[in-house]
């Protein structure tokens, strides 16, 4: 199953909890700049909220983001189990 960068970020936050952009970028395999742009987009969509805790900005899923990420995880697990 191919996932978009947005979906991979949501799944990363679901799995690892609140993270800085740099950690998200490393786990997803994108640059920090691209990660920042996608995080801003997901924030505008109400799926992620960012909190500044000096000296870092921490990103976490909103309730809506959590539900979407959980659904994505279930769908991807079902697809993988059917392929085996």
What is the helix tally?
A: 4
Kindly state the percentage of residues in helix. Answer: 55-70%
* Biggest sheet features: 3 strands, antiparallel
Overall pLDDT score: 93
User: Can you tell me the CATH topology?
Assistant: Arc Repressor Mutant, subunit A
Q: Could you state the CATH homologous superfamily?
A: Winged helix-like DNA-binding domain superfamily/Winged helix DNA-binding domain
Beta-strand level of the residues, as a percent range? 15-25%
Radius of gyration: 13 Å
- Low-confidence region ranges: none
Brief descriptors of the model:
84 residues; alpha+beta; Arc Repressor Mutant, subunit A; globular
What would your notes on this structure say?
By secondary structure, this protein is of the alpha+beta class. The protein has one domain: Winged helix-like DNA-binding domain superfamily/Winged helix DNA-binding domain (Arc Repressor Mutant, subunit A). A three-stranded antiparallel sheet has the order 1-3-2. The radius of gyration is 13 Å and the shape is globular. The mean pLDDT is about 95.
């Amino acid at each position: 199953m191919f996932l978009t960068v947005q979906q991979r970020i949501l799944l990363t936050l679901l799995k690892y909890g609140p993270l800085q952009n740099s950690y998200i970028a490393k786990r997803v395999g994108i640059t920090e700049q691209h990660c920042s742009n996608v995080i801003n987009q997901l924030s505008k969509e109400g799926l992620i909220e960012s909190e500044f805790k000096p000296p870092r900005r921490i990103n976490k899923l909103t309730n809506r983001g959590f539900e979407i990420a959980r659904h994505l995880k279930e769908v991807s697990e079902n697809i993988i189990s059917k392929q085996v």
